[in-house]
User: What shape does this take?
Amino acid sequence: MTLLNAPKYDARGETRKTALIFGAIGFVLLAAVVGVGGYLLGHGWFFTNLAAEHKVDKFFTALEAKDYNKAYALWMSDPDWQKHPEKYDYTLKRFTEDWTTESPVGPITSHHVDISKTDGSGTFGTGIIVAVRVNGGQKIFMWYEKKDKTLTYPAPHELEYN
Assistant: This one.
């Protein structure tokens, strides 16, 4: 190919290439902002802990409403637990006592989910610690087990935050 028979300039092709390059750069920047933003705001990389935070929020909402059947179902991650209560050593009666009369924070009257952090072994952790302020300011830390989506209190350790 010589200069005299070079291909004709394709303006649409050049525009498409430019748009693809800027689109790719924009996508990478957006992904970086969302990924780091989720971490900095305390909701896990790319906001991956939001599902656990939502479950813990629903759990405490049920406790506030004194709907202990629903709270127990969320705790055990088994909406049909009433069909097979013998499956669990931790009974609804004991659960209700633990979250009312025997609770170190008393009956739950208000709550706010603050932050969460992935924890445990492995690259992506085995669970999530969710920090919750209850009854006007007392911090408690819930453990969300990723493999079976059950809740546990207390979490293996506490998070440092204001």
About this structure: The chain has a mean pLDDT of 92. The first strand starts at residue 111 and ends at 119. The first helix runs from residue 11 to 40.
